[in-house]
Amino acid sequence: MKLAEALAERAEATRRVEQLRARIVDNARHQEGEKPAEDAAGLLAEAGEVLEDLESLIRRINRTNATVRTGPESTLTDALARRDVLRLRHSVVTAAADAAAGKGERGYGRQLRSELLMLSALPVAELRGQADMLAREIREVDVLIQRTNWEVDLLD
């Protein structure tokens, strides 16, 4: 099985657990003299089985990510960490540029000469340029990760 297929299975198992959780909660109590729509104990047992399989799958995915090389000195885990930090950095730079540009401010700026003028404390154009470079780097790292996911077999 390819790593990408295992990631899809992990996502499906996670959705399945969430669906089972909701069904368990819906059927955990019932009115005296009534029968619940579903057997909560059976659903709980089923959730336990899905969770055991999910844990095994996650262990294999993590083991694969830590072992597979994406470069001479980096693993897939390193690439994932890089992408996560790039996304956070992009978010911070974009938020800073938006705030410096006055995006989201109420009102229409100064209406009278006696009102205070709001000035930007940060170089908006430079921040937008940084955000564009970060977005490009995120895309490049993401393509590397996706390509690796489809090329690499999941470890046992």
Describe, in plain words, how this protein is organized in 3D.
It is flat and about 75 Å long. The termini are close together. The chain has 156 residues and is mainly alpha-helical. Helix 3 runs antiparallel to helix 4. The relative contact order is 0.15. A two-stranded antiparallel ribbon has the order 1-2. It folds into two domains: 67 residues; 83 residues. The chain has four helices and two strands; from the N terminus they run H-H-E-E-H-H. Strand 1 and strand 2 form a beta hairpin. 69% of the residues lie in helices and 3% in strands. The model has no long low-confidence stretch (mean pLDDT 94).
Spatial arrangement of strands, main beta sheet: 1-2
Number of strands: 2
Oligomer classification? single chain
- As a whole number of angstroms, the C-alpha radius of gyration is 25 Å
- What fraction of residues sit in β-strands? under 5%
Query: What's the overall average pLDDT, rounded?
Result: 94
Principal-axis shape equals flat
Cα separation of the termini: 10 Å
Low-confidence stretches: none
Number of domains: 2
N-to-C series of helices and strands: HHEEHH
The secondary-structure class comes to mainly alpha
What is the makeup of the main sheet? 2 strands, antiparallel
